[in-house]
Amino acid sequence: MTVSSKEADATSNEGSAPAPTPFFVDKNEPKNDAVDFAAIESAVKVILKAVGEDPQRDGLLETPARVARMYAEMFAGLKSDPGRHLAKVFEEDYDEIVLVRDISFCSMCEHHLLPFTGKAHIAYLPSGKVVGLSKLARVVEEVARRPQVQERLTHTVANLIEERLSARGVAVVVESTHSCMTMRGIRKPGSLCLTSAMRGAFKTDPKSRAEVLGLINRVST
Ligand SMILES: [Zn+2]
What we know:
Blueprint: E1 2-4, H1 5-11, H2 37-50, H3 63-74, E2 89-91, E3 98-109, E4 114-125, E5 129-131, H4 133-144, E6 147-148, H5 150-165, E7 169-178, H6 179-182, E8 193-200, H7 201-204, H8 206-217
Parallel strand pairs: 1-3, 3-6
Antiparallel strand pairs: 2-5, 3-4, 4-7, 7-8
Helix pairs in contact: 2-3, 4-5
């Protein structure tokens, strides 16, 4: 079974009850109550001054508060357990590859605090237990919302799926563009960083590995 993340959302087994009004509250959204907004605001003011700006000028007055809210959002996954999304599993007599491709994400490079954005592809071989497809995207989303490096993001997602689903095999391939390479330093726009983590049969059986990589790389028709 191969689906894109958009289809995964549509075929998710989550209920589609109307959102409560006036605001939709996503109970699955991670929360990071440890974020100290006031401290971020003063730090941003210090940085603005340090680069020669005037934090009191009109255009910058609300910037520190805006940046604090943005960091709270970007790092919302820091204190949460992304594995909780894999707690609800379904007994299913299906033991072939399940693949969700093109799960888009945005994370923050922990070395420069600049975003890296891209797509994750996740495949697993169930051993009697499957999970709602959109939950795989939830895991990526939450692991991405931390100060991060792409290598750790990739193997964290693979480890969680292997452990929580007792999967016979897991393949996670992540491709992304790092702002710290495209807009500063070496300045190479268009460069793509690819990482992969193979577990179980996808690591030990060359045929299974070739099959899953073929599906991940297959051009959509
Ligand atoms: Zn970086």
